[in-house]
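Question (not urgent): is this output format expected?
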Amino acid sequence: MSDSQGSAGSAGTATTIDALLQESRRFPPPPAFAAAANVRDPSIYQRAHDDPEGFWAEAANRLDWYQRWDKVLEWNAPWAKWFVGGQLNASYNCVDRHVATWRRNKAAIIWEGEPGDTRTLTYRDLWREVNRFAAVLQDLGVRKGDVVAFYMPMIPELAIGLLACARIGAPHTVIFGGFSAEALRDRINDSKSKLCVTADGGWRRGSVVPLKDTTDAAVAECPTIEHVLVVQRVGPDVRQVNMQAGRDVWLHEGVEQVLRRTPHPIVAPEHLDSEHPLYIMYTSGTTGKPKGQLHTTGGYLVGTSLTHDWIFDLKDDDVYWCTADIGWVTGHSYIVYGPLANGASVVMYEGAPDFPDKDRFWALIEKYGVTILYTAPTSIRTFMRWGTEYPERHDLSTLRLLGTVGEPINPEAWMWYQQYIGGGRCPIVDTWWQTETGMIMITPLPGIVATKPGSATRPFPGIEPDILDEQGNSVPANTGGNLVIKRPWPAMSRTIFGDPDRYVQTYWAKYPGLYLTGDGARRDDDGYYWLLGRVDDVVNVSGHRLGTMEVESALVSHPAVAEAAVIGASDPITGQAIVAFVTPRGGQQPNDALTADLKEHVVRSIGALARPKRIYYTAELPKTRSAKIMRRLLRDIAEGRVLGDTTTLLDPTIVAQIKEQYASSEG
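Got this back:
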């Protein structure tokens, strides 16, 4: 349990590692659930271990292929090719093949906007819209291999646009709609995107997010952008936007032009090589430059469709809701590609969970009869803080399975989720995976694995992790170490876009031939995995990874700042919060006004997610004699731990001064 036992409606404090390992409660699958589960035979683990390529080949038969592969895996560590020689199309697998069955009239996307407007698209509706969108892209000169950037609210056109890109073989890169113009610009330029898709705005807590204005500021410095395609979401009565002649095109006008040419446009799906790039997803790194993870078509679709089916125990009558934003990898894998490849009915919601009141999520579950809910521990801890009165307003009896994603979940939050949202009857699948992995890697299979609050339990069949010490030795039970993956898997990132050397150095150099996740973990006596968070300089805020160097670079770009160091400190709501230690330039006096200005400066540079929760001022930062900032010591101070070795510091007294300041401010 957590260090501080709160009431059922409070989040308490962050769970300690020792407390996690003392968690011994077990929840076996409910008998009725297990009897009808998609996976009921535990021998699947051994079969996948003994013949991983055979296992993944069988999984690939779930998809429709234009040409079957010649070889399941070509592995020259760290370079992987899956289903070599095979040809398929992700858009066809997510849309067309369902239209040829009874699912043509099944709801594919059930959408609700924050103001309460709704749309339901059947698979036939989705097919029609994807073809129209693809035709507009082609009219704007987008061809196979061209990269298309998206900066969008959570509206159906975002999913439609991704599938349209996949249809014509144009890789996409989605930039979260909360990022700043600078962050959008940098990602567009790194990916060399040819076209950017945005909207006139989106709704968030009753206000309009000015996406088109931000896009205009970004693409002014993006020489590869030829056109900006704009979806009319809020309309001119709410917000007028500037449309640059020759560059900007309204989506609805582009569709009208297509329909004047042909009333029923059909864009034939490209026959794409299994290794054809599907998308680039940027994830923060420790150097300040985001890493563009390149995912390809065949292996990614195999991995996401299989994991979605087995882990969420998907049935044809399920109503599935993943509350993530498509701007993050969770939305790619478990809102768009995995669920739609499986013919699922997917709920999408545009806005905030507390608008117009703190029961919006529970109202949506009751309204649409949601049966599967996949959300983040950060959200769960927020719901706990708000109290049980909000879920108790609504009938949540349709729920039959709950999931968590984004970061480790503390047992207290797990139990609250199970009791107050799942009514004590729903299995919980606590999932661990990353942008880099593309698919869920460690998770219970809900029909056969007993769960423990706070543990992601076992590796998915066909996945072989280990926990290593610094020398590369596998550590014994109940000992922390570096989580690695020992075998390649289909949905793995193939490289960092434009920087293969960084890909090797970041993930494969420390333990050659093994993928270094960057996360710490322990295994208990039952072989269950307990994730302990990041071991590198990346902060995980509400399940979103932000590089400390990126935030530090933003702070140092302020004229009042000489140096900055950023860490992640435990936070009961967001998992981690950004804490900054700043050395002001000469003549600058620290005060509340400067603190407020620095926080807003970071928001302007990166986005609201990167806003530091606390800023401390210090005359010096703790550095080694080689001038390396010792962020580890700052984390020790922030977490109240015994300080590690300080003998390598240039000035050990600095640490004591910072510790005293931190303690007095916290007190």
